[in-house]
Design a protein that fits this description.
CATH topology of the largest domain: Rossmann fold
Strand order of the largest sheet: 12-11-8-13-16-17-19-20
Number of helices: 13
Radius of gyration: 26 Å
CATH class of the largest domain: Alpha Beta
Helix content: 25-40%
Distance between the termini: 27 Å
Number of strands: 21
Number of domains: 2
C-alpha cells in the first residue's frame, strides 16, 4: 500500500521514525511530507533512511524542480497526518493552503487519517473540537488522542496515539474496504514467447498491462496475489505481489498449475501462444533460402486444463476477439468450464494490447454486463467487482 505520512510541527514527531519503520516492515511504501516546523523536531535524513524514499517539505526542490502535490495525492492509497497540530487542523478544516502537505491534502482522493497531538487544554478547546468535527464530516478519519503524560508535564487527554495503535486503527478501518482479505488470487498476464532458435521466437503484442492492473487492484483489496507474468517490460507492479516470471506457454502452465489448487480465484488474462515450433533449433538458423517453413504444434490449453481441475475455485478467462465476439466468448465460457469471461474486441478503439485503456464485457452463464472505455486501473476494479458477485 502506498502511504503518505504528513508530519507537522509537534513534539510527538519524535515518534515518527518508529512509525515509519513499522509501516515499512509491513511492506508498505511510505513517502513523507514535512511541514517547515516539523523539521525542528525530526530530521529528513532519518526519515528518508527508514522509508527508503526522498522526504519533501516544499514545492521547490534543491535543483529548482517542482514537487508535484497532485501526483503525490494521486499516488497515495492512504494519507496519514501525524502528529496533527491545532494549527494544521485549523487550516485543513477551513481551507487554508500554505504548504506542500496541505496542498496534497486538498488534492487527495485517498482515505485520510488524522492523529491529533497537543496539550490537554488545547485539545479540549471548543475551536479544536469544532475543527475535528468538521474534518470528520468531510470524511476524514480521526484517530483520537489518548490520556497520558504530555510534553508540558501535565497528565490528560491530548497525547498522540502510539504508532502501533495508529497502524491498528488504520488497518481496522480499511479492512471494511478489503473484500478480498483472506483470499488467494492467481492471475496470469502478458504474452508467451515460443522459441524457434536461441534468438528468435513466436510471440504476440501483449504487454501484460491489463493483468498487472488486476493484480495491483486485488492486492489493494486485501488478497494474497500470485502473478504469473510472461515476458513484459512493465514495472508498475505492487511490491506485495508474489511475482512468477515465465517465458513459454509450458512455463506458464507449470507455474499456474502449481498455484491453482490453493487459490480461491484464478483470472487468466495472459495472451498464451496457441502454437509452438515442433522443433527448436539448437543454433541460430542462418538465412539461406528466400522462405522458411516451420512446423507448429498446439500448446497446452491452460484455461481448459484448469476448468477440468477446478473444485472450489472461481475461474475467469479472457477472450480477445475480432469477429462474432459475444458468440465466441460464450462458447469459450461453456467449453472450458469457466465461471466468467472478460470479452474485449480489437475492433474497439482504445482496447486491446499495449493501450492504457480497455473496453470490456463481463459474461457469465446468467448475465452480460458491458462497460464503457476506461483506464485499465478502473477496468480492473470493474472486473473484480463482477468476480466478487460470483463468490462461492
Amino acid at each position: 500500500m502506498n502511504i503518505i505520512l504528513g508530519i507537522t510541527g509537534g513534539i510527538a514527531a519524535y515518534k515518527m521514525p518508529h512509525l515509519v519503520r513499522l509501516l515499512v516492515k509491513k511492506g508498505h511504501n511510505v513517502k513523507i511530507i514535512l511541514t517547515e516546523s516539523a523539521e525542528e523536531f525530526v530530521t529528513p535524513l532519518t526519515l528518508a533512511t527508514l522509508s527508503k524514499n526522498k522526504v519533501v517539505s516544499s514545492f521547490k526542490t534543491n535543483d529548482n524542480q517542482w514537487n508535484n502535490h497532485v501526483e503525490l495525492a494521486l499516488w497515495a492509497d492512504v494519507i496519514l497526518i501525524a502528529p496533527a497540530t491545532a494549527n494544521t487542523l485549523a487550516k485543513m478544516a477551513n481551507g487554508l493552503c500554505d504548504n506542500l502537505l496541505l496542498a496534497t491534502y486538498f488534492s487527495a482522493k485517498a482515505p485520510i487519517f488524522v492523529a491529533p497531538a497537543m496539550d490537554l487544554d488545547m485539545y479540549a478547546h471548543p475551536t479544536v473540537n469544532e475543527n475535528l468535527n468538521k474534518l470528520q464530516s468531510f470524511g476524514n478519519q480521526i484517530i483520537p488522542a489518548v490520556y497520558g503524560e504530555l510534553a508540558s508535564g501535565l497528565i490528560g487527554q491530548g497525547r498522540m496515539a502510539e504508532p502501533e495503535d495508529i497502524i491498528n486503527f488504520i488497518e481496522t478501518n480499511l479492512s471494511k474496504n478489503f473484500p478480498l482479505k483472506g483470499k488467494k488470487v492467481l492471475i496470469t498476464a502478458g504474452p508467451t514467447y515460443e522459441a524457434i532458435d536461441p534468438v528468435r521466437f513466436i510471440g504476440n503484442f501483449s504487454t501484460g498491462k491489463m493483468g498487472i492492473a488486476i493484480a495491483n487492484e486485488a492486492v489493494k483489496q486485501g488478497a494474497e496475489v500470485h502473478l504469473i507474468l510472461g515476458p513484459s517490460s512493465e514495472t508498475n507492479i505492487d511490491r506485495n505481489i508474489h511475482l512468477h516470471r515465465v517465458v513459454s506457454a509450458s512455463d506458464m502452465y507449470e507455474a499456474t498449475v502449481n498455484q491453482f489448487e490453493t487459490s480461491d480465484i484464478a483470472i487468466l488474462s495472459a495472451a498464451v501462444a496457441d502454437y509452438t515450433p515442433k522443433t527448436k533449433a539448437p543454433e541460430k538458423i542462418k538465412k539461406k533460402e528466400t522462405s522458411l517453413t516451420l512446423e507448429l504444434v498446439s500448446t497446452i490449453d491452460i484455461l481448459a486444463s484448469l476448468g477440468k481441475q477446478k473444485k472450489q475455485q472461481l475461474l475467469i478467462g479472457f477472450a480477445l476477439e475480432t469477429e462474432n465476439e459475444s458468440e465466441n466468448a460464450k462458447t469459450k465460457l461453456n467449453k472450458k468450464n469457466l465461471d466468467g469471461i472478460v470479452l474485449n474486441s480489437l475492433k474497439d478503439k482504445g482496447a486491446g494490447f499495449g493501450t492504457d485503456t480497455n473496453k470490456i464485457t463481463f459474461i457469465t452463464q446468467n448475465s452480460e454486463v458491458s462497460f464503457p472505455l476506461k483506464n485499465k486501473t478502473e477496468v480492473a476494479k470493474d472486473i473484480l467487482n463482477e468476480v466478487l458477485k460470483l463468490k462461492k
